[in-house]
Design a protein that fits this description.
Layout: E1 6-10, H1 19-28, E2 33-39, H2 51-60, E3 65-70, H3 78-83, E4 88-92, H4 99-108, E5 112-117, E6 135-139, H5 153-167, E7 173-177, H6 184-191, E8 195-198, H7 210-221
Parallel strand pairs: 1-2, 1-8, 2-3, 3-4, 4-5, 5-6, 6-7, 7-8
The structure holds D-xylitol-5-phosphate (DX5) and zinc ion (ZN).
D-xylitol-5-phosphate (DX5) binds next to strand 2.
C-alpha cells in the first residue's frame, strides 16, 4: 500500500528568535511533524537544538516531534529525549555499539524507532534489524550543517532501500534529510522517500514565506 509522503520541518533552520511564531505558521500550513536536530560537537562538528528547547516545544504544540540524534553515546540520552516528549527518534548507526538493543528500548517506551545512516554508510548494516525499525533516516548530505548540496549517490541508496523494503514486504518509512529542495524532492520521492525533512532548501527558504514554501512542496508530493 502506497504510503502518504510526510513533510517535516527542520527546526534548526527556523528563526531562532521567533520559534513559537514559526511553529504556529508550520501548524497552520499543514506540516506533518517537527524534525529536531541534536548535535554534540563531536559526532558532527556543530551544536544543534537541545533538551530544554524540546521540552518547551512539547508544551506549545501537538505536532509529532521527530528527534535526530547526531551524537556519540546516544544510548545515554534516549530516556531524556523520550521523557521530554518526542514521538519518534533516530540515532546514528556509526556511533552506536548496541543498535538492536537501543531500538528495542525506544520501541518499548512507545516511541517510533529509526536508525540514521551517513551518506557513506552501506545499507547492509540494516541486515538484521529490519524487524526493529519503524523508519530509516538516509542522510542525503553529510550531517551537521544546513545549506549543503545533496550527495548524489544517496538517491541510488534510497532506491536500493526501497527495493529491500518491497521485497521483504516491510512497513518502514524512508526519511531523507539534507538539501531536500524543490528540485531534489521529485527524485527523492520517486526513489522511495516517504518522510521529508524540510530545511533551508524547501521550507525556510530565503525571500519565501512558510505558506508559499509549504504549498510548493505539497504540490510536489500530492
Ligand atoms: C543536516 C540537518 C538537516 C538540515 C536540512 O545535518 O540534519 O536537517 O538542516 O537543511 P537543508 O535543507 O539546508 O539541507
Ligand atoms: Zn536531521
Amino acid at each position: 500500500m502506497k504510503k502518504r509522503i510526510k513533510f517535516g520541518a527542520s527546526l534548526m533552520c527556523a528563526d531562532y528568535l521567533n520559534l513559537e511564531r514559526d511553529i504556529r505558521l508550520l501548524e497552520q500550513n499543514g506540516i506533518d511533524y517537527l524534525h529536531f536536530d541534536v548535535m554534540d560537537g563531536h559526532f558532527v562538528p556543530n551544536f544543534g537544538l537541545n533538551l530544554d528547547l524540546l521540552k518547551k516545544a512539547r508544551q506549545i504544540t501537538k505536532l509529532p516531534i521527530n528527534v535526530h540524534l547526531m551524537i556519540d553515546n546516544a544510548a545515554n540520552y534516549i530516556d531524556e529525549y523520550i521523557d521530554a516528549g518526542c514521538n519518534s527518534l533516530s540515532f546514528h548507526q556509526e556511533s552506536t555499539y548496541h543498535i538492536q538493543r537501543l531500538l528495542q528500548k525506544i520501541k518499548s517506551r512507545g516511541v517510533q524507532a529509526g536508525i540514521a545512516l551517513n551518506p557513506a554508510t552501506p545499507l547492509n548494516t540494516l541486515e538484521y534489524i529490519f524487524s526493529d525499525l519503524d523508519f530509516v533516516l538516509i542522510m542525503t548530505v553529510n550531517p551537521g550543517f544546513a545549506g549543503q548540496a545533496l550527495v548524489p549517490a544517496t538517491l541510488e541508496k534510497i532506491a536500493d532501500l526501497k527495493k529491500i523494503i518491497c521485497k521483504k514486504n516491510l512497513d518502514i518509512d524512508i526519511q531523507v534529510d539534507g538539501n531536500v529542495s524543490f528540485e531534489n524532492i521529485p527524485q527523492m520521492t520517486k526513489a522511495g522517500a516517504t518522510m521529508l525533512v524540510g530545511g533551508t532548501s524547501s521550507l525556510f527558504v530565503k525571500d519565501m514565506d512558510i505558506s508559499e514554501s509549504t504549498q510548493r512542496v505539497f504540490s510536489l508530493i500530492a
